[in-house]
## 1
Amino acid sequence: MTEAFWVNGELRDQVSVSDRGLQYGDGVFETLPVKHGQIALLAYHLDRLYAGCERLAINAPSREKLQSELLSAACGEQHAILKLLITRGVGGRGYRPPPDSETTRILTRHPWPDHPSAWSGVGIQLRVCSTRLGHNSRLAGLKHLNRLEQVLARAEWSEREPWQEGLMLDEEGAVIEGTMTNVFVCMADGRRITSELSRCGVAGVMRRHLLERAVEAGEPVQEAQLSLKELQAAREVFVCNSLIGIWPVRRLDNQEYAVGDWTRRMQHWAREAGIGTD
Amino acid sequence: MTEAFWVNGELRDQVSVSDRGLQYGDGVFETLPVKHGQIALLAYHLDRLYAGCERLAINAPSREKLQSELLSAACGEQHAILKLLITRGVGGRGYRPPPDSETTRILTRHPWPDHPSAWSGVGIQLRVCSTRLGHNSRLAGLKHLNRLEQVLARAEWSEREPWQEGLMLDEEGAVIEGTMTNVFVCMADGRRITSELSRCGVAGVMRRHLLERAVEAGEPVQEAQLSLKELQAAREVFVCNSLIGIWPVRRLDNQEYAVGDWTRRMQHWAREAGIGTD
């Protein structure tokens, strides 16, 4: 893997200090897994990116252009990560978005982060973060560049501590997501739930894949409000994203969970999409 | 005025695409007014910047260094704006802040934005934005780089429309601030209020100056919850920041306000600090 950086299609690792991505976090991003030169769920990543640009009224580059740049950057790579940022570009006095700014696209390639295979196998330990997610329905679901809440939450524990992921609640104490993952649970009565994300949270690409796959399999997962109490009482819990696939949760504070059939079935569906340990 | 850009003290207008300021909005900023080579309320700007760095656990450069760089950039300038960004710098895998990152400091100098003097004189027209501010007590008050809410709010109207500033409410409908200003009101019963900012909003430098000056003058302003109804029933309303000073509000939707003695006294105090039309 060669680390590499492109700005607007040219090999460069610098951007203007006036870029609104830096000035205001005025943009969106995607982090994509590369395996054997391919990008799993690429169409879903692009769908979310375009939905974000549309919501923020950013003039996105054409889908064909982005797709071809992403695939060139992936070409020949055995295992890597691509990160694509789209910002509103340079310009505008103050917060007002200039009507005619030229979007900046920043593409970077990084080594694959090797997580212990046990995290997919026997599962991880989850902690509850004290940093909460604020509500903003206009930004909810998007993977935008305003990520201080996640930075603060991830700073709450170090890598020497026993947790692999942190759970984030919203202002009102509802369970929303992990710092970099979405959360799925199967309750003792068989109900399958993932947190609804109409007021905050990032609607993950792996989350979408699993929701769709679960409908096809006739065992749909409900998008609903989820309380910490419900999570603690759940039979199975896992977190997921489009890089790691699915990590079963074996422990949350003093609560232990078994890794059950439902989680294993979900992992199978993630692998079908090319994501997660084979 | 010569526009100029410095990164870490060197004349440069580019930063690394890996800077966490761009990647996550992981940093804080200040916008400072320069008049005749001087920066009004410089100490208050630095106080807020350091409070922000402390809250985000960013290793801020020394106060002496920042102060001397700001004053050099101001030196000889008749009328200009400085903008200073401090980011956590490059590094870290994902959201987790690296323990030893080197802070990036970005200083830029821009022309003074000439607003019509009538806005300070007869006042402005304010609109109510539909974009709401989400609550996050850990970020409230700070001037951090996650500013999408302000960008969306400011995009709600164009410069051809009759409004000069937009009012932002929080999730629950409380009046918090303007897109780039704080709000002060004097009620019919004489109570003087500015919105309390414990859950969202930016605690402005001019706001602090006025709050302190009002106490000295024996007519303190209360930091309190403020409803839209109270604002509509107010006798005097103004918005303020450390660049424009104070703009009286003469109209909010169909509600008209007089520009009264209290607002004029406040404008006098702003001018005492070197801010606002002479």
Note: The helical segments of chain B are 20-24, 42-56, 63-74, 118-121, 148-154, 205-216, 228-233, 261-272.
## 2
Amino acid sequence: MSDKTADRVERVRSAEDLSRDQREISISEFFEKNRHLLGYDNKVKALLTVVREAVDNSLDACETARIVPDIKVSVKLVSGMKDRYVISVEDNGPGIVKQNIGRVFGKLLFGSKFHKLLQSRGQQGIGISGAVLYSQLTSGKPAKIVTSTGDGKTHCMDLMIDTFKNEPEIIKEDVREGKNWHGVKIELEAEGKYVEHQQSISEYLKQTALSNPYAEIIYDSPDGKIKFERSVKTLPEEPKSIKPHPHGVEIGILRRMLRTTEARTLTGFFTTDFSRVGQSSAKEIIRLAKFGEDVNPKNIDGPQVEKLFQAVQQVQLIKPPLDCLSPLREKLIEEGLKKQLKPEYVVAITRPPDVYRGNPFQIEVGVAYGGELPPDSVAALYRFANRVPLMYQAGDCALAKAVSEIEWRRYGLEQASGAALPTGPIAIFVHIASVWVPFTSESKEAIASYPEIIKEVKLALQEAGRKLSIYVNKKRRAGEAALRMSLFEKYIPEVADALARLSGAEKGKIAAKLENMLKKGKVVIEDTEEPEKPAGKEDDA
Amino acid sequence: MSDKTADRVERVRSAEDLSRDQREISISEFFEKNRHLLGYDNKVKALLTVVREAVDNSLDACETARIVPDIKVSVKLVSGMKDRYVISVEDNGPGIVKQNIGRVFGKLLFGSKFHKLLQSRGQQGIGISGAVLYSQLTSGKPAKIVTSTGDGKTHCMDLMIDTFKNEPEIIKEDVREGKNWHGVKIELEAEGKYVEHQQSISEYLKQTALSNPYAEIIYDSPDGKIKFERSVKTLPEEPKSIKPHPHGVEIGILRRMLRTTEARTLTGFFTTDFSRVGQSSAKEIIRLAKFGEDVNPKNIDGPQVEKLFQAVQQVQLIKPPLDCLSPLREKLIEEGLKKQLKPEYVVAITRPPDVYRGNPFQIEVGVAYGGELPPDSVAALYRFANRVPLMYQAGDCALAKAVSEIEWRRYGLEQASGAALPTGPIAIFVHIASVWVPFTSESKEAIASYPEIIKEVKLALQEAGRKLSIYVNKKRRAGEAALRMSLFEKYIPEVADALARLSGAEKGKIAAKLENMLKKGKVVIEDTEEPEKPAGKEDDA
């Protein structure tokens, strides 16, 4: 620390000057200025992001209330305006109770999922209010919400976000009586650009239909209506919410849990606030930390937290419960890929659940090959997280990374050198289901590169690759055999001629017999190549 | 909207169930759970991020108070612990007034820079409190702050963040009198891993010294002390804070500015709250929108905002003032590159300022070639934003993208096909200075791909490339000429022999003369290749 004091007076002023400028920044202001963090970097992507946030919310609401979802999406150009659209999304979900409408749509960081360990699409409490924020920023107009919980009352609310306070500002509000329905309709006006391309809204909805086959989605686009019909009539199993696993809890979280627990003893704290801690494990932790079992958790602070934390690490515990996950399962993935892509071969693998940083997750993959898939292009990659298609930032995504790191040549496919997607008539599907998906940004477009996740994706792809390689190799060998046979067929007259001369039999008869044998498959022209090494387990997994 | 009512009762319960779970999420909780968004994805990077946030803050504080910075950084392993370090950063800045210490370090989204358009390192009010959050999460320990504003009082404060409230929690606090100094020292204990590699703390500090040559940095690392001495004794020009430019303001912001302005007339609003709007421009806007000049801005709302917004777009205005930027300038970049990399050739280009989304920015680049740079590797790329080295996520960064999109072969360099960095003894430096740097994430590691930014980087690199190519080509031609001359030298005896026989002169004399001429450079062996096309302006810029 410098002891110079010459310019003291001037500097004192500076410190106070600085202090006058220091003030609180609301999360709404923050994202208003950093809207690209929420996926609103450009007009084309912005339109997709608005639709995605609303559809994700609708699907989550329907599933939570165990309602088979009917969703209507509409995107229409505002007449007389360039690059300005009205987007509306309507569902048949449970609706929103009146007192929460404002905050659900008009307050960032407000939601029901953040504080739970539960597999759901939303988790941050930013998505839909972020869309409202983008809408008012670029159109100056309020969001229009219409909702009913099925009690005969329909609430209509026009709202904006007061960005200084991060609180809803109700512009208009009324209640209509008489109509019995339930659900939510949100209508937003925003700057956007409508382009049909690989990352378009219709592609997003197509992939959503693939991973949510129990949802019916009607899309009224600027180019006309598309209907994605449900192929399954029942909802998937309901995912369960779980408590944190002690081995996934950081010391700072442990400290906070100790201070806010309702348990009055340490034993009670461990057995009720965590998963996988029984009486005996709790007692072992407490013994190792040298505390009394009846110590009030609220009295533990400072260096004692560290002691307790170290003790937790030393005790062996069962992995977190894994029935909290609701994967798509192999059958559904295979059917979806067949229906959408019309390949000649398809294989899907659902891995057993695993754990990263204490969070259960589960990987499943599907590989489609041949058929109507384009033969000479780089593989199409479909990424999903908790059933939501990820459309952007593949370059930054653990799922894409794992796919590129597989040595696809081992499985009979072509692949450019270096980590790359395979080339050929192939499409790859990867889904991560988790109680907490580690996205690389608030816009939820890419998965952070946890080694556990990359490893699981690779194991799944290798298993799928081995199955695929059997098919691809069989097909290749059959093709080669057919080629050899057609060559042999060409020489039948000469072979027959030679045999006739050697045996004295009639040439025409011999030729006819040879042709007959070839047709019946009794002549098999053996593969003279070395037998291929079976595609075994890769070492790099 | 569905009219089914059969399961109404059950669903009503669901909507209310849902509402009970809905609650506010504090920004601290959010980043605690999403710490990778702040750059704390792994232990190695986390240690660097903690140092970076503290050093950025110190440099900003010193510059704002116009103090030439002296910074001490220390990173030490906690004895007896694996992967646990104590990081401390100390500066000679203006210090922090007592009443703000808590919130500067213990509240996320609190700061002096967010609400200004000013070139500074920090802009979000998240950095240093994010480091405190990471520290308490992984060590359970408070941050220790020691500061004085030069009034003889030293404030010592141990604090943590109450993550539920996003407010500082003061653990311990005292004041010591008598010592006259000013500055801040912050000490944090956190999980980390210390590795010397390309993205290490010492590399970060080395690059910081390169772009802040007026700062002295002493680094006490786990491996020993390193001192980066200042090479310049004066601070760069002070960047000025500017008002927003009307063409960079979105309609939602305009609406808010209307409601919060202190101006009482529309004319006053435009001329005082914006840059580049004089009386006549203001009057033109108001006339186009068909308002009266004396209308109170606070009375404008709803569709009237849109009318005013459209009018603003129609009026021609001068670009934003550009003296708000403080680039490094060519001389400083060239000197820095020479000192650090010892190349044989160096060129730097500082572009004139430009504007993206209403925000002034300025690009400068440097290219170093040959000398001690490794001859066969891919070019080293140094990225900077407002003088801060960017160490991660180059793959996602507009600066890196622009460098790779240059056709370096035009400038005599080797380059792999497709967009790639050039290969050879070359290092590339790119700096963006802006009043608002558009980072792709809160961890501030990569620049978002605004076309204006990419275009400016390319123009700068092309200009540097043209200068470099003259040098590279000259060097190559000189090398080839030397090669041809040495070949000619070999044949001197034979040429002399032939000439002697033809002319009758003495062979030895002729040979001596020829050698002499070669040495004096009077014989120039002409390049027989086609003259090269001058490296002109690329079309793809």
Note: The domain at 246-314 of chain B is CATH 1.10.8.50 (Helicase, Ruva Protein; domain 3).
